[in-house]
Write a sequence for this structure.
């Protein structure tokens, strides 16, 4: 991607939290959103996402977007203006350390007004987000335990159950299983047993 990059919205940390909370409350009141097959996970504000927007009849825009949530099949983000459903998007994702994670293309499938100039945009990816990339993106900087990863891993494991239930061809199921196994190795401790505490001076003397 080339050309100048501008921010999709200009929000203080407090404004961002307030807007995301308002959107979350509204989403809970929309049954079709809460029943989404593709689970979504909150994006930390440390994630870096550059979006190239291609609207019909308009010049291509490159924006640094404020991500809201993300899943294997799509994502939500905030944008300072209306985006026509069907708008093509090309995303370049980076983690909190500015390391490139992956790229994905998609199409705008939802645009809802929030307040002021801000709109809540929903995008459907052309191809599923790799599980390893998803786990890297939702990890919060400064969280050594990465507790946000455990619910995500459980939800992604459930995806395999749904694939089998729906009669998905075996090669596709095995591909998802392989991705999940890699993520488990990367994100779970090798030994989950509680470490044995050192003996106390009294016990050593006994």
């Amino acid at each position: 991607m080339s050309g100048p990059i501008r921010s999709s919205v200009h929000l203080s940390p407090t404004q961002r939290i307030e807007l995301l909370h308002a959107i979350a409350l509204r989403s809970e009141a929309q049954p079709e959103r809460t029943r989404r097959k593709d689970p979504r996970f909150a994006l930390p504000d440390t994630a870096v996402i550059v979006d190239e927007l291609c609207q019909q009849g308009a010049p291509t825009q490159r924006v640094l977007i404020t991500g809201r949530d993300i899943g294997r099949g799509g994502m939500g983000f905030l944008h300072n203006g209306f985006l026509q459903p069907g708008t093509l998007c090309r995303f370049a994702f980076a983690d909190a350390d500015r390391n490139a994670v992956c790229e994905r293309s998609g199409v705008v499938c939802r645009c809802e007004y929030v307040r002021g100039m801000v709109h809540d945009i929903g995008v459907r990816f052309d191809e599923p987000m790799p599980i390893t990339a998803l786990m890297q993106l939702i990890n919060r900087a400064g969280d050594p335990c990465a507790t946000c990863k455990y619910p995500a891993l459980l939800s992604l494991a459930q995806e395999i159950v749904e694939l089998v239930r729906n009669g998905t061809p075996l090669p596709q199921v095995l591909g998802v299983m392989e991705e999940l196994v890699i993520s488990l190795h990367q994100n779970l401790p090798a030994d989950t047993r509680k470490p044995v505490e050192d003996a106390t001076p009294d016990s050593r003397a006994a």
The longest strand covers residues 100-115. The helical segments are 13-28, 31-34, 131-138, 149-165, 170-187, 201-205. The two ends are 69 Å apart (CA to CA).
